[in-house]
Amino acid sequence: MNAPTVPRRRHILALDDWSAAELRGVLATAAQMKDVLARPIKQVPTLRGKIVVNMFWEESTRTRVSFELAAKALSANVLSVGSKDTSVKKGESLVDTVRTVQALGADYIVLRHTSSGAPYLVAEHFRGSVINAGDGRHAHPSQALLDLFTMTEQLGDVHGKKIVIVGDILHSRVARSNLWALTTLGAHVTLCAPPTLIGPASEWQRTWPNVTISHDLDASCEGADVLMALRLQRERMEGGLLPSLREYTRRFGLTADRVSRAQPKVLVMHPGPMNEGIEIMPDVATGPHSMVEQQVTNGVAVRMALLYLVAESRDQAPSA
Ligand code: CP
Fold first, then answer.
1. Banded pLDDT at 317 (limits 50, 70, 90)
2. Can you list the alpha helix ranges (DSSP code H) found in the chain?
3. Of 52, 59, 5, 55, whose CA–CA distance to 28 is shortest?
4. Domain locations along the chain
5. Ligand 1 touching residue 223 (CB < 6 A)
6. CA of 60 to the centre of ligand 1 (A)
7. Is 261 annotated in the active site?
């Protein structure tokens, strides 16, 4: 397999310092990985003899399973551990857990954690590579890359496209990572949410000057190329952020009528898990515009590409 030449990274922690060339390089590598997954034997030897440890300190279905499948498709030995079934339950710290899996031979750690910044701490204490599988409300780089991959498969390029992200922006690591990737590639991003679930526009525009902040989903949907609904993260809310669920759904739920205001071939996306009937209606979630299953499918190829890229970095520049 001849993967494209892209800058090497030892860790994948966030997308805030990724260039357009680097993003495109990952998309091209993921396309090659998708070809591998279409073969009768869905496996290449890239990580043969290597150990990938999935450390998931927060619940996950899509990310955990697809990283596991991705590592297996690259021939790695992979195991998944959660905080509830390890000595973390007895009080062992994250850093001591990392030292332990390192002593057991881990080459790569894929980490999901409730605390923003936890992957940076792990990267400081681990001699191998760390891939962030979602930390608090900070970043979810592999999700944003699979979203980007799905969009470019369908649209060709996101440059100049209108991408609307609607929902619980305040608590969303997916929104933040998508913002980095999409704006770097020249997309026009609108974030749409009630004021309590997004905060002041000036705070977003300090980091992303061209982002549009809206509290009107009907208007935001006009002419959109992509409508991405986000889950209402009630587990991260401390109360008082929503007057009522019914009112939220009435104003910010993705309905067929709202989808009809967008471009005729609009892509409807959701990173999952979905609260159907709250942020997205069931007929929209499974309707003709829905990319939800393609997003999940593409997650394996994109995560193979990320494991491949960090493996290459370790082979070529171990101290990078
Ligand atoms: N999108 C996403 O991260 O889903 P999971 O929580 O199921 O991994």
1. very low
2. 20-37, 62-73, 94-103, 118-125, 141-155, 173-184, 201-207, 217-221, 245-252, 256-259, 282-285, 292-316
3. 5
4. 20-139+297-316, 141-296
5. no
6. 5
7. no
Of all atoms in ligand 1, which is nearest to the CA of residue 272?
A: 1
- Pocket test residue of 61, 137, 177 for ligand 1, highest count of atoms within 8 A of CB: 61
* 243, two tokens: 């007057």
Indicate if ligand 1 lies below 6 Å from the C-beta of 273. Answer: yes
Average the pLDDT over 106-122 and give the result.
97
Q: Is the peptide bond before 264 cis (omega within 30 degrees of 0)?
A: no
Summarize pLDDT for 41-83 with one digit per residue, the tens.
999 999 999 999 999 999 999 999 999 999 999 999 999 998 8
Model confidence band, residue 86 (pLDDT cutoffs 50, 70, 90):
confident
* Ligand 1 binding pocket includes 295 (Cβ within 6 Å): no
List phi, psi (to 5°) of 55. -105, 105
CA of 319 to the centre of ligand 1 (A): 31
Q: 143: Cβ below 6 Å to ligand 1? A: yes
Digit-coded pLDDT (tens) for 152-169: 999 999 999 999 999 999
Contact 129, 106 (CB under 8 A): no
Residue 301 contacts residue 33 (beta carbons within 8 Å): yes
- 141-296 shares the fold of 20-139+297-316: yes
Q: Which residue of the set 29, 63, 150, 249 is catalytic?
A: 63
**Integer Cα distance of 26 and 145 in angstroms:** 8
Q: How far is CA 34 from the centre of its chain?
A: 17
Please determine, looking at this structure, whether the domain spanning 20-139+297-316 carries the CATH number 3.40.50.620: no
- Residue 299 CA to residue 286 CA, distance in Å, equals 18
Q: Fold for domain 141-296?
A: Rossmann fold (3.40.50)
- In tens, the pLDDT along 170-202 reads 999 999 999 999 999 999 999 999 999 999 999
- Sequence length of the chain is 320
